[in-house]
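Issue 218. Parser rejects a valid record. Input:
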Amino acid sequence: MGHFAEALALVLRIDVGVTILLSAIFGLFVGSVPGLTATMSVALLVPITFFLDPVPAVAAIATASATAIFAGDIPGALLRIPGTPASAAYVDEAHALTKKGQSEVALGTSLITASLGGLIGVLLLAVFAQQLAAVAVKFSSVEYFWLGCLGLTAAVAVSSASLSRGALSLLIGLLISTVGIDIATGHPRFTFGQMNLLDGVSFVPAMIGMFALSQVIRSVTTDLDVKVPVAKIGSLSRQMVGTVRTYWPNIIRSSVLGNILGALPGAGADIAAWVAFSLSKRFSKTPEKFGTGHPEGIADAGAANNAAVAGAWTPALVFGIPGDTVTAIAIGVMMLKGITPSPRVFETDGTLVLAIFMAFALANLIMIPLGIIAIRVARHALSVPTRILMPVILIFCIVGSYAVDNTIFSVWIMLGLGILAYLMEENGIPIAPAILGIVLGKVIEKNFLITMLKTQGDMLGFFDRPVAAVLGVVTLALWSFLILRAIRSAAASRKVQSHTAPAVK
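Output the parser choked on:
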């Protein structure tokens, strides 16, 4: 109780409260701009943390990352442009609701599940941090390989298109991920002499191009003009209450899942959102509604990605191993402020760590009123005529792509992949699996090669470790199930066609 009272006194200080409030507003702004990620919002705050005490300094980072993850859902739902990579998993579902005039359903669901997912994640972090970290550090290259493969499976499984089209999209993404230096030989692949491609295709310009620019091109070619009523705060509040009543089991399940995946170094909110969305469709009583604008998948994925934000702090606090890029920055700030991550951190800096947990929880609570205001302001974007809105979005696309590494080449990547995505969708090929292929391609390749080197080429080495064996069997079983389902569906389709075909005389 002594630590609790001292930590509460630290968090209730005026400077901490003001820091959390301003960081939340900043995170909402950065996250809602396509191309400006949660990592970027945290990086921009680092110089300011030099002048703050330990608790407000770390609280600023935790708050900005949590609110930026949610804010990415706003342009995703309204304009089909995910503000952050974690929003890409369910952007089509959220935008489908907007096209039906139910943007308050999509955004209200995103907001309340983000807040609750973050709160549950903080609670699990406070109670099970040491246990989760002990499991996380035992993951080797083979476990990460199977985890990546499972993520790819999720992308194809949740695709509203046919299995073949979803798989084709995934292969396109994996092909793009092979651009750059070959991990095994050190030779450049598919760079065509371009030095800018040696590090591969940057994910942020790819995401902006494939979601945002393709939407701009489509609006120009179809003269699309979306008119949706502006959401009221009252309707948002009722929607949030209804979401909790209807989907509370989903929120708890996905929050726990997201927290566990977030605790695995390198997994993060992106994979958590994809896996949660896939499981949501798998266990849903109405899976046929997915892809048409169904809030259930948004509730699962929204809770998972915000719980993963908290989960990523687990290995960072206990072992000094960053769970994602945000916590990599946070470790530096904590060490600068005299907090040394270690298994004994709860004993050596127990009060400060508990205060950080409280600040994290406060950030997720303050997200609700600020999120409602942000949604209400952002909803007016749809009342702007398309001929004005689309050029503004194009400017955001260019600025967001350029901001990644301050090169014009990133803008060209965004342009090229935007045109590719437009052509893909025009031919019925979904974009989402390709995006995940770009994200996970290098992760899977690296861990595959590391495992092959360790096992001297023995494929059975991928099943030697208990956790790896379970993940491998589950992944292969899912692949088999998807292939058999596709074969059965094709056979049934041919049978129907043979029965309906007119007799030839």
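Fixed in the parser; the record now loads. The first strand starts at residue 180 and ends at 181.
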